[in-house]
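in:
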């Protein structure tokens, strides 16, 4: 925004200090003046003798001295106000410098304003916190862009290779080529749709409605039951009515991603997944646990990063595009919830989602206890 030049804050404070001091001085001198005029009778002499001063003599002597005193007060007010304003505004100068650096792209700079807590230091601390979050978000976005470019480039490169092979070998079986191109194209479409879903969740551009997490959990399990049976994984769902508000489609996608992730990253044989829902401390909860390999806390902390697939980047046909938990985290945050990931001592992962409970429908579930549903390999 273009603004016309104006006085600096330091100069304004200086003039304010000097003006206040002048007003105080004028009021003090006015009190003395009123005292001389009203309470000292004219002709009064303060010492015996022919040359003792009268009230008139005091008034004549008072006026020029009062002017000199006001002049001194003005000079002291300007000089002292300028120095005092500079000292008071020194923290603001550092904050302004940090703001300009941040605007220029330097998010690593911090103010670190020393001293006891006051308004300026509270502002500086909040600004440092904001810079830290912006720096972390910027780094995450850069990693996301790099990973997305890599993931999108892979299917395009495979497609180009297949097409070049087909062009150089006209006698090659086109059926196999079409099947491989269809598979690669499907992966690219899945990745694009996942990116769009992630963007939609980040923007919070969705209508809110009443959603029961227990029903979305059962729907997700029913959908993924064939995949679980094919991998020999037992899925058990149990829990209570868990009402919340939000997008049914996004919350169903969140639940599906969690259950899908639990099935895929499981033991090769006799794996298990547990899905429970309920209300805990005024929050609708969804917990998904699964058996699997032992995970370190450091690895668990990175699982919500885009394109993070645990200990390896290799994947199978059902491993998804690497955005499952990243999408879950975005959906949870878009619904003002909390996502917690913990490793299980026996191996595997425990994912807990806490969403604000729907107050209008929280009481409906008191008598609606969902029966535990066990899904096992057929």
């Amino acid at each position: 925004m273009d603004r016309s030049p104006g006085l600096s804050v330091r100069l304004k404070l200086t003039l304010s200090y000097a003006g206040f001091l002048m007003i105080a001085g004028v009021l003090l001198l006015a009190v003395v003046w009123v005292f001389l005029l009203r309470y000292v009778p004219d002709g009064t002499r303060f010492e015996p003798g022919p040359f003792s001063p009268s009230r008139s003599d005091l008034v004549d002597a008072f006026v020029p001295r009062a002017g000199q005193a006001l002049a001194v007060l003005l000079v002291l007010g300007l000089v002292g106000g300028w120095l005092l304003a500079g000292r008071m505004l020194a923290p603001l100068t550092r904050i302004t410098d940090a703001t300009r650096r941040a605007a220029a792209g330097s998010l690593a700079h911090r103010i670190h304003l020393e001293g006891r807590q006051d308004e300026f230091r509270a502002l500086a601390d909040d600004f440092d916190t904001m810079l830290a979050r912006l720096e972390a978000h910027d780094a995450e976005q850069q990693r996301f862009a790099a990973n997305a470019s890599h993931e999108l480039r892979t299917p395009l490169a495979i497609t180009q290779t297949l097409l070049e092979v087909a062009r150089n070998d006209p006698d090659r079986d086109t059926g196999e080529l079409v099947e491989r191109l269809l598979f690669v194209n499907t992966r690219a479409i899945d990745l694009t749709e996942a990116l769009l879903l992630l963007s939609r969740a980040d923007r919070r551009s969705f209508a809110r409605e009443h959603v029961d997490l227990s029903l979305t959990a059962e729907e997700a399990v029913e959908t993924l039951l064939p995949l679980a049976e094919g991998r020999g994984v037992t899925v058990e769902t149990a829990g209570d009515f868990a009402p919340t508000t939000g997008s049914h489609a996004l919350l169903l996608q969140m639940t599906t991603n969690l259950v899908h992730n639990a099935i895929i990253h499981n033991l090769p044989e006799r794996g298990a997944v547990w899905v429970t829902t309920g209300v805990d401390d005024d929050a609708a909860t969804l917990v998904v646990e699964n058996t699997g390999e032992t995970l370190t806390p450091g690895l668990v902390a990175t699982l919500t990063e885009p394109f993070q697939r645990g200990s390896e980047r290799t994947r199978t046909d059902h491993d998804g595009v690497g955005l499952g938990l990243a999408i879950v985290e975005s959906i949870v945050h878009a619904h003002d919830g909390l996502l917690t990931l913990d490793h299980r001592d026996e191996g595997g992962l425990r994912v807990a989602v806490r969403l604000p409970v729907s107050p209008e429908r929280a009481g409906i579930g008191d008598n609606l206890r969902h029966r535990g549903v066990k899904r096992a390999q057929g």
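note: The CA atoms of residues 253 and 328 lie 8 Å apart.
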